[in-house]
Structures are given as structure tokens and as C-alpha cells.
Amino acid sequence: MYSSHKVKRLLLIGALTTLSIALLAISLKGWSPSPSFKAPSLLETLGFITGAWCVWLTVEESIWNWPIGNINCAFYLVVFAKDRLFADMTLQGIYIVLGFLGWYWWLKGGENRTELKVSHTPAMTWLVMAVIASLATTGAYYYLVSVKDSAPFLDALTTVMSLCAQFLLTKKYIESWYVWISVDVVYIYLYWTRNLHLTSVLYALFIGLCVAGLLQWSKSKQAAIMERAVA
Length: 231
What we know:
Layout: H1 4-29, H2 42-59, H3 65-82, H4 86-108, H5 123-146, H6 152-170, H7 176-193, H8 197-230
């Protein structure tokens, strides 16, 4: 008999697979529901697909989220370069570096170089990150204005917040999901106004997956606490 978690997992895999195939077909045919809705490019579609799979794998605490995530970043690096979202373009390159780092930490970052477990973010980490994020957002904003970025403030803000969230994720801190949810709300607006409609929808999907990730990681953390108590 399958457990309820396994059934949900199989249903989600089926839904993601169906969605991926449908989106590829739509992109290759150049179909759009209305003249005002820009048909997604193949690169944006591939970015959507790999992004959705990456977040789901992260929710499942699968190490495969990192290589899939790096492929996703490569697609979006090109997409954002074409749309002159330079901070987001640069962010994808940094994500790739953090992706390899997170891959290693998840495998060997735990006690005695074992698999890393879900934990809470230390208070000092929050303090240092808040100071760096404020300074980085201000600096990035003025730089993006100088290079005529299409949305300098939002591009700077989301870039810095995303880096903070990604760092927390590489350390498997559960609060990373709260930061991701916050930044995804801003991303939905930003990408919709830049006519990256499919990417905007992707980030709406991300919010749902982030909530699922928060719940799943909370259970994982409680299980780890029980294991230590028994040991």
C-alpha cells in the first residue's frame, strides 16, 4: 500500500510532467491566448520547467535540486540579458556558484561531514545579513540606474533578497522559505510588467511550492529532533 505522502508525490510528479510537455508544445507552436499576452520563448519555457522541478526537488530535500537548479539558472541568465534585467542576469551566475557550494554543503555540511540537517537561522546570521542586504540594495540600485536598467529598484531589491534566500537555502535553514515567499511576490509583479508572463506565473507557482517546502522541512526538523532524543 502506498502512503498518503507517496500518493501525493506521484500525483505531483505526474502534474509537473504533464505541465512540462504542454508548455513545450505551446512554446514550439508560438501559441498565445491573446495579442496582449506575449508567447513564451523556448528559453523562457525551459527556464520555467527546470525552475518548477528544481523547487519541487528542494521541497523533497533531494540533492538533485542543485544540478537542475544550475541548468535553470543558465537558461534565465540568457532570458534576463535579452530583457535588460542586468541584476537578475548577474544573479543567475552567482546562483550557479552557490549551487555548487550548496550541493557540497548538503552532502558534507553536517556533523562529521555527514548530510546536512534542517535547522534554524542563528540570530547573528540575521543581523549580518540585514546590514549587508541594506548596503547591497542601495549600491545595486544606483549602479543599475547608471546602466539604464529597466526596473532598477525592484531589480536591485529582488536580487539581494534572492541571494540572501539562496544562502540560507545552501545552509538548509528553514527560514529560507519565508524569504523566498517574500521575494517571489515582488518577482510576480516585476516579470509581469516586463511581459515575461510565463515567468511571472512560475513565481506564483513557486509561492505554493515554498509553502509546501516550509511544511515539509518543519516535519523533517521535528523528525531529526526525535532521532536525537532517542539516540
